[in-house]
Inverse folding.
């Protein structure tokens, strides 16, 4: 007889996420290889950057190897120094805080809103000190933060606002694109994102001086890009920098996805709407919270999540889903309670909503290539699991 410890887990029939394939990636890669210019900042990269500048309405969009690298580039441009402080939500990925910590600055964590799990704008002011240099917001699940009061507060106190828009391509706030709402922003094109190239990201901003300096920093601190445009007769080391350039292969893959990114977003929204229409009753029944989208926001269906009343309840539901071949996952361990968060940062006020999300949030499978039959199966499994 097989013991529980040695029992074989059932196969996953519906994975949490499968990297999207549009069908145009291989041809884009072949063309890039044929051009024999595979280092960064070549034809495919410039094409992807042009698309992103147009989609976001920004002056500067520079591809990076990851969303993490884009955040680190933003922190360099913000000239964060040891002793500086940056206010941010605790319910986010480590990259948000690492970009600050790597500059010697301190992340100051505050709670999120109960509805969107985005930073609570009302809690930022109490966290400000004479050392505060910037505010970092995170558009969780592709739902934009309430940016107007945040930008007004930042203007009053002379602070820089950096958007961690890793999950938010094609999301909008009051008609304006997420990622073009603050002073600078970072997007991710990791394979778990709506649009991806395996690993990738982009830094965006509108300010000319930041855009010009970002171009230098990501080229190891040299003015190489200006040299290749014929603006100078030789290039040299002129600033601090690192290698923040993705290869042309990543850019080519990304370009094929960007061409269909609006279509992909619509497909995801249709699936998200199916979840919401069928599972919204769980909130009315008091067994789980479902996503809430403010009226002034247009999200991009990056995540569909449920929030269960406890970690134990979430574990039980995840196990019930897994027994039927459906893969669900939790999300962030709040940074203020993580070992590195306690070491490098501090927090202000109660973290009630953050802690509840960390304990009870469960993400359901959602991918652009999912069939409606798969969504229906997930809905059926979840309904029975939470009953």
């Amino acid at each position: 007889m097989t013991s529980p410890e040695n029992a074989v887990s059932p196969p996953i029939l519906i994975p949490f996420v499968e990297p999207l394939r549009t069908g145009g990636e291989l041809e884009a890669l072949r063309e890039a290889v044929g051009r024999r210019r595979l280092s960064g900042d070549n034809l495919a990269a410039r094409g992807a950057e042009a698309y992103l500048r147009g989609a976001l309405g920004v002056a500067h969009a520079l591809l990076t190897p990851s969303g993490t690298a884009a955040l680190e580039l933003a922190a360099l441009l913000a000239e964060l120094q040891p002793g500086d402080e940056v206010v941010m939500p605790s319910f986010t990925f480590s990259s948000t805080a690492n970009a600050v910590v790597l500059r010697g600055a301190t992340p100051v964590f505050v709670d999120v809103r109960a509805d969107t799990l985005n930073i609570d704008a009302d809690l930022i002011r109490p966290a400000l000190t004479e050392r505060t240099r910037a505010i970092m917001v995170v558009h969780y699940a592709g739902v934009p933060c309430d940016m107007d009061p945040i930008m007004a507060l930042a203007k009053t106190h002379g602070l820089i606002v950096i958007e961690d828009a890793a999950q938010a391509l094609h999301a909008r706030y009051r008609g304006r694109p997420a990622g073009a709402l603050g002073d600078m922003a970072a997007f991710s094109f990791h394979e778990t994102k709506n649009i991806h190239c395996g690993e990738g990201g982009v830094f965006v901003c509108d300010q000319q001086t930041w855009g010009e300096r970002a171009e230098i920093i990501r080229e190891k601190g040299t003015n190489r890009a200006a040299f290749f445009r014929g603006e100078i007769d030789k290039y040299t080391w002129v600033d601090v920098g690192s290698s923040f350039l993705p290869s042309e292969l990543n850019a080519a893959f990304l370009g094929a996805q960007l061409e269909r990114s609006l279509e992909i977003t619509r497909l995801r929204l249709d699936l998200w709407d199916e979840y919401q229409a069928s599972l919204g009753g769980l909130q009315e029944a008091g067994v789980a919270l479902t996503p809430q989208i403010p009226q002034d926001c247009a999200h991009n269906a990056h995540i569909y999540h449920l929030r269960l009343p406890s970690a134990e309840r979430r574990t039980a539901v995840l196990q019930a889903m897994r027994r039927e071949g459906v893969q669900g996952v939790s999300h962030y361990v709040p940074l203020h309670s993580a070992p590195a968060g306690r070491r490098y940062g501090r927090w202000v006020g109660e973290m009630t909503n953050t802690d509840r999300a960390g304990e009870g949030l469960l993400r359901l499978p959602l991918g652009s290539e999912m069939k409606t039959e798969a969504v229906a199966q997930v809905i059926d499994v979840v309904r029975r699991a939470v009953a």
User: Anything to note?
Assistant: DSSP finds 13 helices and 13 strands in the chain. The chain has a mean pLDDT of 95.
